[in-house]
Amino acid sequence: ESDTASEISFQFNKHKKTPSIGSHSSDMASVSSVSGSVLSVYSGDFGSVDAQGTVEFALDYDEKNREFQVHVFQCKDLAVVDEKKGRSDPYVKTYLLPDKARMGKRKTSVKKRTVNPIYNEVLRYKIEKMVLLIQKLNLSVWHNDPLGRNSFLGEIEVDLASWDWSNRKLNWYPLKPRSLSAVNGVDHRGVMNLSIKYVPPGSLGKMCPKNPPSGEVHIWVKDVKDLLQLRPSGVDSFVKCYVLPDTSKKSYQKTRVIKRDTNPVFNHTIVYDGFHTEDLKDACVELTVWDHEKLTNHFLGGIRLGLGTGLSYGIAVDWMDSTQEEVAFWQEMMSAANEWIEGLLPLRSL
C-alpha cells in the first residue's frame, strides 16, 4: 500500500541504564527531558497587559541589495508592566509571516524605564521582492523581563502585498491586542492525511507468521495539502517522525523529499515496535513537515498524536499537548486494535 516503509524498535524502559543489544531501547531517565523535542525551539513569550499606545515606523525595499528594511523610530504611551515601580523596559520585535521560523526574528535594543522609547533602528531581511510580496509583517512591542518571561504590549500586522511601496515616510500606527489566532496558536499551515494502527502483542494469533512478540504502532503518512508556499516555485517538503519521549536517532524517521509541490504525496509507512498497550497513554507520535534547503531545513507545521495530558510516565512535559482532534484520533486507535484509523488533521505551529 505504500512505496516506502521504515521499521524501528521502540522499547519503553524506565529502569534500564543502557540500551539492550539488538533492539532500540530507551532509558526513560535520559529521554524524559523536554529539551530533546524537535520543536522545543519554537517556544514563545509569556505574559501580557492590555495593549495601548502607538508605534512609528517606515518600510522600504532596497532593490540594489535585495533587502527589506523596517525603520523602527519610536513608541508612545505604552502600557506599564511593573505598576509598583511604574516602569516598562520595551523593545520591538518583527517577523515575516506565515513562517516566522524561516526568516527569523529581528528585534531592536531594549529601552529601560520608559513608556515612550526612541529606537531609530533599522531591522533588515535579505529576501527577494517577489517572495516578500506573499508575506505579512508582524511588528510587536514587548517588555523585557530579566527572567525571560516577556510581556506583550501590542502589535500591528501589515499585508505586504497591498503595501504602498512609494510610501517611505515614518508614520504612526496604533498598537492592537493580540489576535485570537495568535493567542490560540491557530494559523493555517495545511492538513495532513494519514492513517494509524495499533497491533497489540500476540494479537494476530499463533499461526500468523507476522504475529508481533511486542506491540506495534503503524503510521501511514499519505499526503499533505495546502502547505505554506515559501518560494514562488513552491516548496520542497518532507516529514519527520519521532515517538516521544524518545528523541534519539533510533526513534527518528523521515520520508523522501517531494519537490516544488504544496500538495505533496508521500505514501510512506513507518512501524514502531516494542510497544506495550499501557505505553500508549504516555507516548506521543510527533509528525512534523519541513521545507528542505541545502544549508538548513525550515519548519512548516506539525501534529502530535497522544492523550494530551501534559504528563509522560508521571513527568510533566510540554510536548504532551495534543489538540482535541489529535487526542480523539489517538483514542480511536487505542480502542480499535488492528484497524487502520484514517484522519485529516490540521498542521499547527507546535
TrEMBL record:
**Swiss-Prot/TrEMBL keywords:** Cell membrane, Exocytosis, Membrane, Repeat
State the compartments where it is located.
Answer: Cell membrane
According to the record, the segments passing through the membrane are none
What GO biological process term is on the record, naming one? Answer: exocytosis
Residue ranges annotated for the C2 domain, each copy included: 51-173, 188-320
**Domain of life of the organism encoding this protein:** Eukaryota
For this protein, the record's SUPFAM superfamilies field holds:
C2 domain (Calcium/lipid-binding domain, CaLB)
Gene Ontology MF terms: neurexin family protein binding
Give a GO cellular-component term: plasma membrane
For this protein, the record's InterPro entries field holds: C2_dom (IPR000008), C2_domain_sf (IPR035892), SYTL1-5_C2B (IPR043567)
> Which is an annotated Pfam family here?
C2
Asked if the Swiss-Prot or TrEMBL record annotates the protein with the keyword Disulfide bond, the reply is no
State the name under which the record lists this protein: Synaptotagmin-like protein 2
From the broadest rank down, the organism's phylogenetic lineage runs: Eukaryota, Metazoa, Chordata, Craniata, Vertebrata
